[in-house]
Fold this protein.
Amino acid sequence: MMADFITYGMTDDYILKTLGEHLKQMRINAGFSQQDLATASGLTRKTISSIENGKSTSTGNIVALLRGLKRLDVLSVLNTPAPV
């Protein structure tokens, strides 16, 4: 079952698994197979599968995957000015 939100009480492994499930659902909703997304993102199908299965990956891979899905907008939540 996919968590609706991520909380501090979750382990890092659980968060990665949840993130992978959300990214997989985004891919399916976009009508992409793993191979389609691999082609669109420049990643391998194996990398896409690993991310979707909650394996640790680089930030660059997440950005490439989101770019392939045309969903870089989800990163806008990180664009919060830090207090000085």
Notes: The CA atoms of residues 3 and 18 lie 6 Å apart. The helical segments are 12-29, 34-41, 45-52, 59-68. The chain is about 50% helix and 0% strand. The chain has a mean pLDDT of 92.
